[in-house]
């Protein structure tokens, strides 16, 4: 459909005519069936972000990993159970960029009723979906960003699809998201960052939040006036309407790494919290919250360090594995690669190389046939088209040296990389520890890393380089939070553990769309266990197989010519 914002008509792809799309409300333990009827002109899949999908990888919705895309005028029916998870998740298209408008909330309430919430029962529950608005057709952005990645930015940010009164068309304000609250009542905000581009600071003037959950796991409640949420994350927070009757702005401000990082336009959005009968005209103007500086990215580290799993007699949670079978150290950054894989290209010819995003210095290449069915057919053998994600980076250097951000001789020596379909195999039931390290390779961004099919225990995080001798002592092995998306701080690290107990092929990637599209991705292949109960069942009856011509045109991982990067970074 066409939507008009900022004086401009834009073609958007949406579900059932809505942006954000419909909320899926379920009770823990429910099974869910969603019929996707693709009436758009694009290949699409829908991913149920954070849903565990135990032994159900067939319904995870990743094109070329779990299924072939649903083509225009085709249907696909997803079936999954929501078990052992309570709180907020979300769904989105897993097709580059289109998820900017194809997304919605998944609300999971406890089986024994909302009286069993381990926090004061809210009077109302309100999904708050933070997004970004692109004035250009996102399918077009996807195509264009393959050449000139850094020339396309969102034109605005949104709260539940509304740009708010910081934006206007010829002086007429854009609609604002309005939240009407009654004095003294408690509201459970289910906040989701569905944006493609930025982590957000979120505040409501004159109010404090009590954070009670994240990624469909309860957390030990803590109060804060600032919520920091990266793409892919959800945060459940209580808001008590305890201020004086009046109007209060709620603001979502994108943060970004400070100079020498490339600075991009990242506009804030705001909605209005109307307390009491404050909606009438003529009343005093709304109160504004004091926002952190956009560059104060350390606020994200502080916020995320405050999360811990709720210990509660009624809500038993899995314990963090104390013994580790597999240790990995994974660096995240940018680099330069030959367009068609390998190292054999003319590195001096601009059209042959480009900028990519990497894990341990290798950049993901989208496979040409869906991996899960292949894996299923060849259980036990390692698919020959895949390259193993190494357990550590090829070189150790000062990963967070900011002088590596701008292109230069020092950075040049380290940036050479290549593209391959990266995979890491895990024996069923292995306890895996991964330390993710953000690097300063061509940028100082954070990296919200999302693992499909599993929750990760977040043991610790910090600024600078991970130092085993010093940092292992900081691990929280008592009540680490469980997350499907962990923020690797700007020029910092995070340590996680998970148990590879879900046989199948699972995407592991950065949830910034540009990092994902540029290749900061791998697949984690969990082998079958010894029994039927620990193995991947056969594909559902009627699971579509795809012939070659049905495949999504395998995209070249988004490539930006180094020359272009240089000029952008010098600007
Ligand atoms: Cu929310 Cu692989 O995605």
UniProtKB/TrEMBL annotation:
Its cofactor is Cu cation. Binds 4 Cu cations per monomer. It holds the Pfam family Cu-oxidase_3. It is an enzyme of class 1 (oxidoreductase). The keyword Repeat applies. Its EC number is 1.10.3.2. Residues 3-112, 125-255, 390-528 form the Plastocyanin-like domain. It is found in: Secreted, Extracellular space, Apoplast. InterPro entries: Cu-oxidase-like_N, Cu-oxidase_2nd, Cu-oxidase_C, Cu-oxidase_fam, Cu_oxidase_CS, Cu_oxidase_Cu_BS, Cupredoxin, CuRO_1_LCC. It catalyses: 4 hydroquinone + O2 = 4 benzosemiquinone + 2 H2O. Keywords: Apoplast, Copper, Lignin degradation, Metal-binding, Oxidoreductase, Repeat, Secreted. One of its GO terms (molecular function) is hydroquinone:oxygen oxidoreductase activity. GO terms for cellular component: apoplast. Lignin degradation and detoxification of lignin-derived products. This is Laccase. It comes from Digitaria exilis.
């Amino acid at each position: 459909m066409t939507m008009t914002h900022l004086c401009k008509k834009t073609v958007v792809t949406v579900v059932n005519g809505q942006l954000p799309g419909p909320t899926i409300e379920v009770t823990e333990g429910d099974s869910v069936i969603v019929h996707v009827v693709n009436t758009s002109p694009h290949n699409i899949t829908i991913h149920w972000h954070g849903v565990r999908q135990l032994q159900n990888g067939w319904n995870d919705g990743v094109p070329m990993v779990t299924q072939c895309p649903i083509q225009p005028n085709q249907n696909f029916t997803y079936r999954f159970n929501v078990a052992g998870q309570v709180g907020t998740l979300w769904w989105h298209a897993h097709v580059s960029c289109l998820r900017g408008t194809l997304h919605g909330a998944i609300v999971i309430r406890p089986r024994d009723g909302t009286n069993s919430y381990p926090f004061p029962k809210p009077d109302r529950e309100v999904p708050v979906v933070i997004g970004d608005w692109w004035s250009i057709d996102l399918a077009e952005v996807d195509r264009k960003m393959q050449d000139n990645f850094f020339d396309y930015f969102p034109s605005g940010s949104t709260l539940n699809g509304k740009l708010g009164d910081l934006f206007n068309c010829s002086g007429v304000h854009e609609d604002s998201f309005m939240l009407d609250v009654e004095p003294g009542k408690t509201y459970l905000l289910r906040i989701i960052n569905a944006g493609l581009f930025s982590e957000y600071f979120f505040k409501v003037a004159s109010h404090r939040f009590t954070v009670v959950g994240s990624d469909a796991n309860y957390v030990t409640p803590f109060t804060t006036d600032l919520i920091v949420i990266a793409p892919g994350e959800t945060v459940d927070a209580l808001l008590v309407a305890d201020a004086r009757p009046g109007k209060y702005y709620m603001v979502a401000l994108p943060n970004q790494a400070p100079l020498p990082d490339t600075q991009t336009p990242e506009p804030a959005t705001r909605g209005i919290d109307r307390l009491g009968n404050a909606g009438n005209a003529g009343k005093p103007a709304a109160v504004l919250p004091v926002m952190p500086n956009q560059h104060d990215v350390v606020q994200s580290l502080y916020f995320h360090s405050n999360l811990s799993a709720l210990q509660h007699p009624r809500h038993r949670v899995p314990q963090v594995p104390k013994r580790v079978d597999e240790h990995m150290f994974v660096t995240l950054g940018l680099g330069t690669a030959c367009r068609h894989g390998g190292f054999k290209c003319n590195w001096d010819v601009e059209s042959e190389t480009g900028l990519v995003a990497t894990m341990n210095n290798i950049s993901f290449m989208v496979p040409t046939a869906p991996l899960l069915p292949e894996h299923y057919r060849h259980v036990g053998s390692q698919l020959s088209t895949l390259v193993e994600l190494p357990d550590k980076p090829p070189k150790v250097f000062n990963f967070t040296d900011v002088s590596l951000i701008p292109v230069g001789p020092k950075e040049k020596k380290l940036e050479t990389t290549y593209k391959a379909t990266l995979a890491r195999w895990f024996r069923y039931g292995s306890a895996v520890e991964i330390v993710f390290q953000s690097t300063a390779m061509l940028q100082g961004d954070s990296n919200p890393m999302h693992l499909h099919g599993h929750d990760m225990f977040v043991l610790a995080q910090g600024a600078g380089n991970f130092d085993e001798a010093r940092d292992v002592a900081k691990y929280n092995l008592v009540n680490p939070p469980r997350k499907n998306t962990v923020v690797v701080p700007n020029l910092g690290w995070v340590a996680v553990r998970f148990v590879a107990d879900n046989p199948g092929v699972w995407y592991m990637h950065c949830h910034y769309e540009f990092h994902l599209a540029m290749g900061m991705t791998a697949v984690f292949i969990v082998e079958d266990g010894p029994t039927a109960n620990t193995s991947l069942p056969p594909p559902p009856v009627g699971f579509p197989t795809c012939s070659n011509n049905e495949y999504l045109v395998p995209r070249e991982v988004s490539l930006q010519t180094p020359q272009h990067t240089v000029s952008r970074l010098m600007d």
